[in-house]
Design a protein that fits this description.
Layout lengths: L3 E4 L3 E5 L17 E7 L14 E8 L2 E2 L1 H30 L8 E9 L2 E9 L7 H19 L7 H6 L7 E2 L2 H16 L9 H6 L18 H8 L7 E5 L2 E5 L12 H15 L5 E5 L2 E5 L8 E7 L6 E8 L3 E6 L4 E4 L2 E4 L2 E2 L4 E2 L4 E8 L2 H25 L3 E8 L2 E6 L1 H9 L30 H24 L23 H6 L5 H10 L10
Helix pairs in contact: 1-10, 2-7, 4-8, 7-8
Length: 532
């Protein structure tokens, strides 16, 4: 059975058995008609060689395309190009935007420790799979070990048992406790005993500390005799430490040590080391106001740590300290104190006089490479006071902020080292090889796979190839050239009665097609065209 296709339901144009592709010269067409394009068509059922085909008949006027032909061709070309362009841009965005590689996450958690609370903020890289619960459990375990070593709250801790031990005998302790005591004694020598971890009995004498029973009546200052009696049993010169094997020894049976002014900073460093050991280098760890940061925040900027304004009635930020791989600790007299006869008595006891500090310095904040040192130095500067402390900080190149009271106002003073941090910017001062973490990353760089063929790149290359093919098809359609071989889609899998591929039939017409085309073109009357 012969199938034919008519335009307007009147005149046959081409028979399916004579399928061919041609582009006659419009000047040789006396009727003014030309076949601009035709598209093979077949159903999935695999129709034979007598299949009908769709042939578009358009008109050329004065050697140019008609409006209808121009519009139809341009519309198809435009759609193809827009689809290709949209797919290409979508691949670019999908392949190289941060969302293609995932987003870094912020993990936060907190808990009780050392009579106060701790807090951790961690920027977790997108490609790292870590459980927050596992991290929190490990942090709690680490802090629990430190408490068991250095706490004065726990009666069975190493420090508590040492305080009850006999004199002139070495008392075995952990390497961690020996290390912290050793650092405390070093700072005591540098400050000429302004910093002293044996001051605990004096603190209790002035009604401070957890061991003092609370009373409904206001505390009263101790007598001079009581102060002198306690002073005879304190002093860092009465304390010895060794590291191999780790141990402590005291020459006075009443000597006690209290590591509360340095142990929190040490604990912060230990938590930071735990994170660094797991290749987690962008974090903020805080225990009771002592802070250490690693790397940068999620936005790539340094961590901004607030230095509190010394105010008895409200909590306010005096200024921000930008930190990168550094620590900040603050010591102040505005939180723990009592009033007697109109005078303020702070919990900060000067071990040299046996009395609370009585100068105008309200708080001292120190920025250092590790939190243990910052913690102890902040206490030292507050004991030394605004004048002696400022001189000592400059001599030892300490980055510090002093806040002291003057005429009812808070006045700020900073050391040259702290000013250097602000002037040059924190990034220029980041240590390349921090002590605790030799391979710490100074910045949160975008994470890119080391493999060349990443999923985004593979998608992009695929879309580029498809886009080039679509563009070639569109160009061939626009310029009235032959179809690209293999561009017929499903027709490449269909064959005619002679075994020829449908695409080959379109791309390589039979030799007698030209004669059949001429005969069919003459049989079409000009007035029968629906495009006229």
């Amino acid at each position: 059975m012969q199938h034919s296709l008519s335009i307007g339901g009147k005149h046959p144009v081409f028979r399916a058995s004579d399928l061919c592709y041609f582009d006659p010269d419009p000047d040789s067409d006396p009727d003014g008609f030309n076949v601009a394009s035709k598209k093979p068509w077949a159903q999935d059922s695999g129709l034979g060689s007598q299949d009908s085909v769709f042939v578009m008949i358009v008109r050329r006027q004065l050697g140019s395309l008609s409006i209808t032909e121009w519009f139809g061709t341009s519309l198809r070309v435009g759609i193809v190009l827009l689809i290709g362009l949209a797919t290409f841009l979508g691949a670019v965005v999908a392949g190289f935007s941060p969302s293609a590689h995932g987003q870094d996450r912020l993990l936060t958690w907190h808990g009780p420790t050392m009579g106060t609370r701790y807090q951790v903020k961690l920027i977790l890289p997108a490609e790292v799979e870590v459980s927050k619960e596992d991290l929190a459990r490990d942090v709690d375990t680490t802090l629990g070990e430190i408490n068991g070593q250095m706490s004065t709250y726990l009666p069975d801790s190493e420090v508590s048992r040492f305080n009850r031990a006999e004199a002139d005998r070495w008392f075995d302790v952990s390497p961690e406790t020996a290390f912290v005591v050793q650092e405390a004694l070093r700072i005591s020598r540098q400050s000429e005993d302004a910093y002293d971890i044996t001051v605990g009995p004096l603190v209790r004498l002035w009604h401070f500390g957890h061991q003092v029973k609370k009373s409904s009546s206001p505390p009263t200052p101790p007598t001079a005799e009581a102060i002198e009696d306690v002073l005879r049993h304190i002093g860092s010169t009465k304390l010895q430490v060794r590291t191999d094997p780790p141990g402590l020894r005291k020459t006075d049976a009443k000597l006690e040590i209290d590591l509360s002014s340095i142990a929190k900073g040490y604990a912060v460093d230990r938590v930071a080391r735990l994170l660094d050991d797991r290749e987690l280098h962008n974090y903020m760890v805080e225990i009771g106001g002592e802070v250490r940061t690693g790397g940068v925040r999620g936005d790539g900027q340094p961590w901004q740590i607030g230095i509190e304004r010394p105010d008895d009635n409200q909590r306010m930020i005096q200024r921000l300290a930008p930190l990168g791989n550094q620590s900040v600790a603050t010591s102040g007299d505005y939180r723990i104190f009592f009033m007697n006869a109109g005078r303020r008595y702070s919990h900060l006891i000067d071990p040299r006089s046996g009395r609370p500090v009585a100068h105008s310095l309200a708080s001292a904040s120190v920025v250092a490479d590790n939190c243990m040192e910052a913690d102890a130095l902040a206490t030292t500067l507050l004991i030394l006071g605004p004048d002696q402390g400022a001189v000592w900080a400059r001599q030892h190149k300490i980055a510090a902020v002093f806040l002291f009271r003057r005429d009812g106002k808070i006045v700020e003073h900073t050391t040259p080292r702290f000013d250097q941090l602000s002037e040059k910017g924190i990034r220029n001062l980041l240590p390349k090889q921090p002590r605790s973490t030799p391979d710490r990353s100074p910045a949160l760089a975008p994470k890119v796979s080391t493999s060349f063929f990443t999923p985004g790149l593979t998608l992009l290359l695929t879309v580029i190839v498809v886009a080039i093919s679509l563009f070639g098809m569109a160009a061939g359609l626009l310029l009235n050239k032959r179809c690209l071989r293999g561009s017929c889609g499903g027709l490449a899998g269909l064959h005619d009665a002679d075994g020829h591929v449908r695409c080959d039939a379109c791309t390589h017409p039979a030799p007698d097609c030209q004669g059949q085309a001429d005969r069919d073109r003459k049989s079409v009357r000009p007035n029968s065209s629906p495009f006229r």
